[in-house]
Amino acid sequence: DVKVTQSSRYLVKRTGEKVFLECVQDMDHENMFWYRQDPGLGLRLIYFSYDVKMKEKGDIPEGYSVSREKKERFSLILESASTNQTSMYLCASSWTGGSYGYTFGSGTRLTVV
Amino acid sequence: GESVGLHLPTLSVQEGDNSIINCAYSNSASDYFIWYKQESGKGPQFIIDIRSNMDKRQGQRVTVLLNKTVKHLSLQIAATQPGDSAVYFCAENRENNFNKFYFGSGTKLNVKP
Question: Which of B34, B44, B48, B61 is the most buried (most CB within 10 A)?
Fold first, then answer.
């Protein structure tokens, strides 16, 4: 069963900490994405990557960075966590030019205290 | 039961009834649309898609209707079951770029036994 795996379901971090969210896909997809999901705001794109070592900013990149050293792994980094980054984070992957959109992970619920 | 998307984010229906979930999109150049289902504690899952050269597409118990004139998309679920309780998102593909989708904020469907 093909899937996208996010390393943690729940995380609690302190303000100012550096936080790493990891995502791994086993479908050999070229594209990977990080979204955050907040009530009433839907899914908002943070960063995406079309290839290894390639990244592009999404709609809300401030306070975040990403790393894609291998095709199957895409990491989201919160350089200095803040309480307004408390959210559900969703990783997704897709084929280039493919129908059926994205395959999503189960999400990581991050709480920054 | 019928929702009006963002103005009614929760839709309650009786088990066995048909459900209609609506979505308005903003970009007339969008040419590919997907409905996702997100159950509690899980990532969104693909339900059905439709391209802009179609008005209607049917799946198992689900039908998607596309009205390009008013930029409106709807998801119809026949004989709604308790397992259909979830949040439903529409996603539109813009810029003729299958690698980038934009998501609505979702409608929560509650199925009453």
Answer: B44
